[in-house]
Design brief:
- The protein contains 17 helices and no strands.
- It is mainly α.
- It is globular, with a radius of gyration of 21 Å.
């Protein structure tokens, strides 16, 4: 099989977009730069249009699938995964609130990052693309439809929403993801020509280092809890998951890593029925590493731009983010794409802030995915211990097909 060229990988293309954007911003003539800023305006407008549909198309069938397979262990596993995701967000929030005043202190007086489409350097024209409905409307509608599908006989609406999910996924894969590097290139051209790039680079380098350290802390906490509950050595459990961690680093996909994760979970003594049920389910709904990165980077942007940070509002954002992560599409950078709507509606992020979130998130996307996958193994250990105590292995084996449904199409 012919290997794909290095430049086909999204991470490489995003990094090239950042580097070339900074370099070209130093010498691009204004007319040429405005071409890319015009594209950025169109892409931002399309992103705003598609986000509510993305939420509706992904969240509704995810909730419907969860409800239809809502056996006892499905609910318990989903609850543990959600608690782990929220804990990750809260941990990142507390660390960021405690460290950013001195870690990013040098950037506290930086003026808010101007939107390239609203600065002195603008695109040639603007095309309005009004969304069909707002983000909060999309979330509420998704919850109502998703729960409603589980309460009515027949599957016509469910199959319709599955078709919508596939359409949205194709748009993400064929339009949004391929054009992201171009969008990021134009954004960094604008930031460089507006004299803001130095503050952005110095700030986010520190945040990237902090994020990598915190993902290690998160895994130690997860396996510390799993080891204490199962009365196993947590370091041995974590060591056995290293093949899954390394695989996820290379693929940036939880779903693609499932076969390796299953073998690692079984190496940790998890029974095959539990591993076959918990691992595919958690690959879909457990995104603790992704949530941690989103929290750290969003708070960094809010800090350096002087945006107000209300603790209660932000904690509500974390709770909603944990729900939104269930709908994250199974493509590189999919989690941040699913979170765009919540960032805009609850935190007030504009197009430039969202662009920075996408660029910095994708830059270390594989580390977040590896953290997600490795954490799945800890949840499998806990669920296996619970099943063993209650003698429900046969029941869990019967629910494996329900868990596999959640992975299909993602």
């Amino acid at each position: 099989m012919t290997k794909k060229p290095l430049t086909s990988h999204l991470l490489v293309r995003v990094l090239l977009g950042i580097v070339l954007g900074i370099a070209c911003g130093l010498f691009f003539p204004e007319p040429l730069a405005r071409v890319f800023l015009t594209f950025n305006g169109l892409f931002s407008a399309f992103l705003g249009f598609i986000v509510p549909l993305l939420i509706l198309g992904l969240v509704t069938p995810a909730i419907a699938d969860l409800g239809r397979g809502a056996g006892k262990w499905l609910g318990i596993t989903a609850g543990i995964a959600y608690a782990s995701t929220v804990f990750s967000g809260v941990l990142a929030f507390l660390v960021a609130r405690g460290s950013y005043p001195w870690l990013l202190g040098g950037q506290q007086d930086v003026n808010p990052l101007a939107n390239p489409e609203e600065s002195a350097l603008t695109g040639y024209f603007v095309l309005e693309m009004e969304p069909v409905f707002g983000v909060m409307t999309a979330l509420l509608l998704s919850f109502c439809l998703g729960v409603g599908i589980t309460l009515i006989p027949g599957d016509t609406l469910h199959r319709t929403m599955d078709d919508l999910r596939r359409i949205i996924m194709r748009i993400v894969e064929l339009v949004i993801i391929p054009l992201l590097p171009v969008y990021i290139f134009g954004m960094f051209v604008g930031l460089t020509m507006n004299g803001q790039i130095a503050a952005v680079i110095s700030t986010f380098f520190k945040v990237v280092v902090l994020a990598l350290v915190l993902t290690i802390v998160l895994l130690l906490v997860q396996y510390g809890i799993a080891g204490a509950y199962s009365r196993r050595n947590p370091l041995v459990l974590l060591k056995n998951m290293l093949p899954a961690y390394a695989t996820a680093l290379g693929t940036s996909s939880s779903a693609a890593t499932i076969p390796v994760t299953l073998k690692c979970a079984e190496a940790n003594g998890v029974s095959k029925p539990v591993a076959g049920f918990a691992v595919p389910l958690c690959a879909t709904i457990h995104l603790a590493g992704s949530t941690m990165k989103i929290v750290l980077f969003s708070l960094a942007i809010m800090t350096i731009t002087g945006m107000p940070i209300d603790n209660l509002t932000y904690l509500g954002f974390i709770l909603m983010l944990g729900v939104t992560m269930v709908a994250a599409p199974g493509v590189p950078g999919g989690a941040i794409m699913a979170a765009v709507g919540v960032l805009q509606s609850m935190l007030g992020f504009d197009e430039t802030a969202v662009g920075l979130m996408i660029a910095t998130y994708i830059a270390i996307d594989s580390f977040g995915t590896a953290t997600n996958v490795t954490g799945d193994g800890a949840i499998a250990v806990v669920v296996d211990k619970l099943v063993g105590r209650r003698g429900d292995v046969a029941e869990v084996a019967a629910e494996q097909d329900d868990a596999q449904v959640l992975v299909s199409g993602r």
